[in-house]
Protein backbone atom coordinates (compact mmCIF):
# COMPACT_ATOMS: atom_id res chain seq x y z
CA UNK A 1 0.00 0.00 0.00
CA UNK A 2 1.27 3.46 -0.89
CA UNK A 3 2.10 5.75 2.03
CA UNK A 4 2.32 9.47 1.30
CA UNK A 5 3.85 11.96 3.73
CA UNK A 6 2.96 15.64 3.93
CA UNK A 7 5.97 17.54 5.25
CA UNK A 8 6.45 21.23 6.07
CA UNK A 9 9.03 23.91 6.79
CA UNK A 10 8.86 27.59 7.60
CA UNK A 11 10.22 30.22 5.24
CA UNK A 12 11.96 32.93 7.26
CA UNK A 13 14.09 34.55 4.57
CA UNK A 14 15.91 33.92 1.34
CA UNK A 15 17.90 30.70 1.32
CA UNK A 16 21.42 31.05 -0.08
CA UNK A 17 22.54 28.60 -2.73
CA UNK A 18 25.97 27.65 -4.00
CA UNK A 19 27.30 27.75 -7.53
CA UNK A 20 26.26 24.47 -9.12
CA UNK A 21 27.35 24.71 -12.76
CA UNK A 22 23.91 24.73 -14.39
CA UNK A 23 21.34 27.46 -14.86
CA UNK A 24 18.01 27.78 -13.12
CA UNK A 25 15.35 29.31 -15.34
CA UNK A 26 11.62 29.82 -15.15
CA UNK A 27 9.42 27.66 -17.30
CA UNK A 28 8.37 29.21 -20.60
CA UNK A 29 5.45 27.20 -21.98
CA UNK A 30 6.18 28.08 -25.60
CA UNK A 31 9.78 26.86 -25.26
CA UNK A 32 9.76 24.17 -22.58
CA UNK A 33 6.50 22.18 -22.64
CA UNK A 34 7.68 19.21 -24.69
CA UNK A 35 11.11 18.97 -23.04
CA UNK A 36 9.52 19.26 -19.57
CA UNK A 37 6.97 16.57 -20.40
CA UNK A 38 9.73 14.21 -21.55
CA UNK A 39 11.77 14.92 -18.39
CA UNK A 40 8.73 14.45 -16.16
CA UNK A 41 7.90 11.08 -17.73
CA UNK A 42 11.52 9.94 -17.44
CA UNK A 43 11.78 10.97 -13.78
CA UNK A 44 8.38 9.57 -12.79
CA UNK A 45 8.32 6.54 -15.09
CA UNK A 46 6.71 4.28 -12.45
CA UNK A 47 4.82 6.91 -10.42
CA UNK A 48 1.04 6.37 -10.25
CA UNK A 49 0.12 10.10 -10.28
CA UNK A 50 2.95 11.94 -11.97
CA UNK A 51 4.13 9.44 -14.56
CA UNK A 52 2.96 8.72 -18.08
CA UNK A 53 1.63 12.22 -18.72
CA UNK A 54 0.57 13.40 -22.15
CA UNK A 55 0.57 17.03 -23.27
CA UNK A 56 -3.08 17.44 -22.25
CA UNK A 57 -2.17 16.55 -18.63
CA UNK A 58 0.37 19.37 -18.56
CA UNK A 59 -1.95 21.81 -20.29
CA UNK A 60 -4.77 20.96 -17.87
CA UNK A 61 -2.50 21.85 -14.91
CA UNK A 62 -1.39 25.03 -16.66
CA UNK A 63 -5.06 26.04 -17.07
CA UNK A 64 -5.65 25.84 -13.29
CA UNK A 65 -6.08 29.14 -11.44
CA UNK A 66 -3.02 28.42 -9.28
CA UNK A 67 -0.64 28.02 -12.24
CA UNK A 68 2.14 30.62 -12.38
CA UNK A 69 5.02 30.08 -14.79
CA UNK A 70 7.14 32.39 -12.60
CA UNK A 71 6.95 29.74 -9.87
CA UNK A 72 7.88 26.86 -12.19
CA UNK A 73 11.64 26.31 -12.22
CA UNK A 74 13.82 24.25 -14.51
CA UNK A 75 17.50 23.41 -14.30
CA UNK A 76 19.30 23.47 -17.63
CA UNK A 77 22.72 22.07 -18.43
CA UNK A 78 24.18 22.34 -21.93
CA UNK A 79 20.74 23.16 -23.33
CA UNK A 80 19.02 20.13 -21.73
CA UNK A 81 16.40 20.18 -18.97
CA UNK A 82 17.86 18.18 -16.10
CA UNK A 83 15.62 19.14 -13.17
CA UNK A 84 12.40 20.84 -12.20
CA UNK A 85 10.50 22.24 -9.25
CA UNK A 86 6.97 23.48 -9.84
CA UNK A 87 5.24 25.47 -7.11
CA UNK A 88 1.63 25.91 -6.17
CA UNK A 89 0.28 28.50 -3.72
CA UNK A 90 -2.77 27.44 -1.71
CA UNK A 91 -4.77 30.62 -1.09
CA UNK A 92 -8.05 28.88 -0.25
CA UNK A 93 -7.24 27.52 3.21
CA UNK A 94 -9.81 28.31 5.89
CA UNK A 95 -8.49 30.37 8.84
CA UNK A 96 -4.92 29.89 7.66
CA UNK A 97 -2.38 31.96 5.79
CA UNK A 98 -1.54 30.83 2.26
CA UNK A 99 0.88 27.91 2.01
CA UNK A 100 3.38 27.27 -0.77
CA UNK A 101 3.69 23.77 -2.13
CA UNK A 102 6.65 22.27 -3.94
CA UNK A 103 4.23 20.52 -6.29
CA UNK A 104 6.54 18.56 -8.60
CA UNK A 105 10.25 18.14 -7.86
CA UNK A 106 12.25 15.95 -10.20
CA UNK A 107 15.79 15.35 -11.42
CA UNK A 108 16.84 13.46 -14.51
CA UNK A 109 18.15 10.10 -13.20
CA UNK A 110 21.29 10.57 -15.31
CA UNK A 111 22.09 13.76 -13.33
CA UNK A 112 21.33 12.61 -9.77
CA UNK A 113 23.81 13.57 -7.09
CA UNK A 114 24.83 16.93 -8.58
CA UNK A 115 22.73 19.21 -6.36
CA UNK A 116 20.05 19.84 -8.98
CA UNK A 117 17.10 18.89 -6.77
CA UNK A 118 18.47 21.12 -4.02
CA UNK A 119 19.02 24.05 -6.39
CA UNK A 120 15.55 23.99 -7.97
CA UNK A 121 13.93 23.50 -4.54
CA UNK A 122 15.81 26.50 -3.13
CA UNK A 123 14.80 28.61 -6.14
CA UNK A 124 11.19 27.56 -5.53
CA UNK A 125 11.28 28.33 -1.81
CA UNK A 126 12.89 31.73 -2.46
CA UNK A 127 10.16 32.47 -4.97
CA UNK A 128 7.48 31.52 -2.44
CA UNK A 129 9.13 33.73 0.19
CA UNK A 130 9.21 36.65 -2.28
CA UNK A 131 5.44 36.20 -2.66
CA UNK A 132 4.92 36.61 1.10
CA UNK A 133 4.51 32.89 1.78
CA UNK A 134 5.90 31.85 5.15
CA UNK A 135 5.25 28.11 5.10
CA UNK A 136 6.17 25.54 2.48
CA UNK A 137 4.93 21.98 2.20
CA UNK A 138 5.16 19.03 -0.11
CA UNK A 139 3.91 15.50 -0.52
CA UNK A 140 6.39 12.67 -0.87
CA UNK A 141 6.11 8.91 -0.96
CA UNK A 142 7.39 7.45 2.31
CA UNK A 143 9.64 5.03 0.42
CA UNK A 144 11.33 7.81 -1.60
CA UNK A 145 14.58 7.64 0.38
CA UNK A 146 16.56 10.06 -1.82
CA UNK A 147 13.74 12.60 -1.87
CA UNK A 148 13.26 12.43 1.90
CA UNK A 149 16.99 12.88 2.48
CA UNK A 150 16.98 16.01 0.31
CA UNK A 151 13.86 17.47 1.90
CA UNK A 152 15.11 16.83 5.43
CA UNK A 153 18.42 18.53 4.51
CA UNK A 154 16.33 21.49 3.31
CA UNK A 155 14.54 21.70 6.66
CA UNK A 156 11.29 19.87 5.93
CA UNK A 157 9.85 17.60 8.58
From TrEMBL:
One of its GO terms (molecular function) is protein-N-terminal-alanine acetyltransferase activity. InterPro entries: Acyl_CoA_acyltransferase, GNAT_dom, MshD_Acetyltransferase. It comes from freshwater metagenome. This is Unannotated protein. Coiled coil: none annotated. SUPFAM superfamilies: Acyl-CoA N-acyltransferases (Nat). One of its GO terms (biological process) is mycothiol biosynthetic process. It holds the Pfam family Acetyltransf_1. Residues 22-157 form the N-acetyltransferase domain.
Amino acid sequence: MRHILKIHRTLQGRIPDTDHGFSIETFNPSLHKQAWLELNNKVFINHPDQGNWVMQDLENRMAESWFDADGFFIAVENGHLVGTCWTKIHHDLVNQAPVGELFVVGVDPDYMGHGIGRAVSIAAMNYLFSKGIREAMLYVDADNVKGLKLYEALGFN
